[in-house]
Design brief:
- The chain is an alpha+beta fold.
- It has three domains: about 170 residues, Immunoglobulin-like (Sandwich); about 90 residues, Gyrase A, domain 2, CATH 3.30.1360; about 190 residues, Zn-dependent exopeptidases (Aminopeptidase, 3-Layer(aba) Sandwich), CATH 3.40.630.
- The protein is built from ten helices and 29 strands.
- Strands 3, 4, 5, 8, 12 and 13 form a six-stranded mixed β-sheet that branches. Strands 25-22-26-29-27-28 form a six-stranded mixed β-sheet, sandwiched between helices. It has a five-stranded antiparallel β-sheet with strand order 6-7-11-10-9, with no helix packed on it.
- A hairpin with a 4-residue loop joins β15 and β16.
- It starts with 8 loop residues before the first helix and ends in a 5-residue tail after the last helix.
């Protein structure tokens, strides 16, 4: 529904008498829904200031004829609305697809100023400024132009987060409540792809590595921290890189995004950060060698496959699964600690890897175990038995090792767990056929890849809903 245009002559005259005040064609007050305007400028402009629908500003016009040889497109839509998830979305669209590679934007997070430039674009909405007095994040929107370009300048609350997406016909900007734990200034020229993060969760730390020598930058722009769980932030130089070490009071997950010149890091309990979480358990370790044969130790084979080799897949940027390992070195970890660790990291699954052994060398083959005492069906529809069956089938289909089936056993790490849990006996270290396979580097790598892909597929089939 169109709002009535209220011509407030006494306010216009009063503003003019103040001197030095520029009267823009449109000044919208979202609080009063009153519009002060020159009626001659209303032609072709559509407004919808229905606050009850969350629309704060609605300009959508059919542009007049313009020189299409000179301009690639015309800016004809400026639309700001509140969303159901407490965000604000500003849409700036043109009447045709401009050269999106030439669209540019810049954000000054300190001052809360966002500038978006449409090159070779006709300004169909006209020169104007909108003051939004009851808007949560956006304070003003102004549109200016010269003979070639149209520029939209937005002022917003500096403490909010913004996300700018370039679309086929312009920009879509989302303003949302700031929820970051750390704000880190990024050196000029550094891209997100160049940042390397390493999670030392067992020490309640993580490290962000940025290429270049930038310690002096962080003396000038100190890292801002807003989360009380952070106990320390240390900037050091390591070779030709800068390392930012973040310490927390307890095990935490983290994620980071870029906004303009800053990196925003969110720190929280793992389940609030990651969509899918698995604990990977390399059987035995330290003084506990496990089974042995011909100088090979079970603890070392387990660790190499599920930690050293599997990390490449689970820690890759494209991985959809966050993995935590019950042990990260050759250290003895008790069975109770292994089972308890799943609850500590908010895990969704627990997968333990072992090698079998028998006095008879003719015993060969792979087995996957689950505990009957820990086989409840989760809210996702997954149970330990289903997890065991799916992992067994993948390994049987992709590895050249005979199957001895899915079996039940009340192993400690299975029955004392709180999530769907399985134990894989990949093969017999004592076996006359299995030994050469499970000690083969190529076979170990293939096994690690299939464990990762199997777990990723399970999460696809039984999504956590996070």
């Amino acid at each position: 529904m169109k709002p009535k245009f209220i011509i407030i002559l006494n306010l216009l005259l009063g503003a003019a008498l103040l001197g030095g005040v520029t009267l823009h064609p449109y000044t919208v007050s979202a609080e009063t829904a009153e519009i002060e305007t020159d009626s001659d400028d209303l032609e072709g402009v559509e407004y919808d200031n229905a606050d009850q629908n969350g629309v704060l500003l609605d300009i959508d016009i059919v542009p007049d004829e313009y020189d299409r040889k000179h301009y690639d497109a015309a800016l004809n839509t400026v639309y700001l609305e509140d969303t159901d998830d407490s965000q604000q979305v500003l849409s700036l669209y043109t009447d045709s697809s401009p050269d999106t590679d030439k669209l540019t934007w810049n954000a000054d997070e300190e001052k809360g100023i966002l500038t978006l430039v449409f090159p070779n674009t006709y300004n169909a909405v006209g020169e104007q400024i909108h003051a939004l007095t009851n808007s949560t994040y956006v304070k003003t929107i102004s549109v200016t132009s010269d003979s070639n370009n149209t520029t939209v300048t937005v002022t917003y609350q500096p403490e909010c987060m913004i996300s700018v997406e370039t679309e086929d016909v312009g920009f879509s900007i989302t303003f949302s409540k700031s929820s970051y734990s750390l704000r880190i200034r990024l050196p000029e020229g550094v891209t997100m792809e160049q940042i390397i993060d390493t999670d030392y969760y067992y020490n309640h730390k993580f490290v962000l590595q940025i290429p270049g020598m930038h310690k002096s930058l962080y003396d000038q722009y100190p890292i801002i921290r807003k989360n009380p769980v952070i106990t320390g932030v240390k900037v050091t130089q390591s070779g030709s890189n800068t390392k930012i070490t973040v310490s927390t009071s307890k095990l935490q997950g983290y994620k980071y995004t870029r906004q303009g010149d800053y990196l925003f890091v969110t720190i929280d309990r793992p389940r609030e950060i990651y969509k899918n979480i698995v604990v990977l358990d390399a059987g035995h370790g330290g003084k506990d060698f496990g089974a042995t044969n011909r100088g090979s130790k079970e603890k070392a084979i387990n660790f190499k496959i599920i930690y050293t080799l599997a990390r490449k897949y689970f820690d890759s940027p494209s991985s959809s699964v966050k993995a935590y390992w019950s042990r990260y070195n050759d250290k003895f970890i008790s069975l109770s600690e292994r089972a308890r660790f799943a609850a500590e990291v908010d895990a969704d699954l627990f997968v333990s890897l072992h090698m079998n052994s028998a006095s008879n060398r003719s015993a060969n083959g792979m087995e996957v175990y689950y505990a009957k005492s820990n086989n409840r069906v989760t809210d996702t529809g997954l149970s330990s038995q289903k997890l065991a069956r799916k992992m067994h089938d993948r390994l049987e289909n992709n590895l050249t090792i005979p199957s001895r089936g899915v079996k039940k056993a009340e192993f400690y790490v299975l029955r004392h767990n709180t999530v769907p849990s399985i134990l894989i006996e990949l093969g017999f270290i004592s076996g006359n056929r299995d030994y050469n396979k499970i000690t083969s580097p190529a076979y170990q790598k293939k096994t690690a890849q299939n464990i990762y892909e199997g777990i990723a597929d399970i999460f696809k089939a039984y999504p956590t809903g996070r």
